[in-house]
Amino acid sequence: MTNGAFMDLYEQNQKQIQELILQFSTTPQQKGSLGQKIGTLYNQMMDSVRRNKEGFQPIVKNLERIRAIKDRKEYQRVTAELDRRGESTMMYGIGVSADQRQADRNIVGIGQGGLGLGTRDYYLNDDAQTQAVRKAYMDYNTKLFTLVGYDEATAKQKADAVYAIEKRIAEKSYSRVQLRDINANYHKMSFDELCEQFPGIDWTTVFWVSGFPAFDSVDMGQPEPLHEVEKVLAETSIDDLKSYAELRIISGSASYMSDDFRKAAFAFSSVLSGQQQDDPLWKRATNLVNGVMGNAIGKMYCEKYFPESSKKRVLELVRNLQVALGQRINEATWMSAETKAE
């Protein structure tokens, strides 16, 4: 039985990307160079002996920062600092994109987020598959807390607390259908209006520690879940808030630490995907490098596997298809002359 053309192309692509990476990971590279960064990242992921020896030590400092938080104001500052480093510790997303009402300008955007399961349906639906996913998610989160040293009872308590926070946010989050409504997801306001209408979030601190320069306006994509985040930050105990941030750090690194973390991560993801066997380590290492340094890898890939001669061949193929399509349109008897011209 064959995998099909698309899977064959995917496998071929994976091997070609690995070949590009290996030229840097198997030979000495100048310190600080792009090649050195690519090779080092790949080799670190491939070094399972080192990862198993280290366990969760790579994230201990970040966990300690969370555990040392004393109040809610400090919580918002620390989680914003960690979120900037890719830890996803905030309960919403911030970024910059084109203004939907003025496409020649960029605007700061704020949007719903904070859900470990990604979409609200997993928290609100009650079909058998969704219930299975929720159970697997709770088991996974409990396992992660035990892997960083908590006893079973404490781990379950912390996992329950995190889920309670996420469900509150999910109940106010937009559905996938609602997210497709451009008008319903565009709420432009000034920074002062943002601070006035959403006072429960320390926006000045959040944007400052996130590295944003001063700006005048912002697009609040989904106001309702952000108002719920305000309530969560005000009403949830500081210990439960810290459990939420802890879990974001642990789960974000689970696939890149020791094998017991990866085993737990795959057991959960297999419930979502149906995949029965984990990818080999070289594929996971290749995907990691490609994910972190995709632009650089993409440029190298095109230079080696898609040279200018290949580009010309593809353009010629497209032009031939356009000519053939034009001929078919001209020969169609059911089309009017006006429609053919269009």
TrEMBL record:
Among InterPro entries, the record links this protein to:
Peptidase_M13, Peptidase_M13_dom_2, Peptidase_M13_N
Gene Ontology biological process terms from the UniProt entry: protein processing
So which domain of life are we looking at? Bacteria
GO CC terms on record?
Answer: plasma membrane
Residue intervals of the Peptidase M13 N-terminal domain: 3-341
- State one molecular function term (GO): metalloendopeptidase activity
The name on file for this protein is Peptidase M13
Organism, per UniProt?
Cellulomonas carbonis T26
Q: What is the lineage of its organism?
A: Bacteria, Bacillati, Actinomycetota, Actinomycetes, Micrococcales
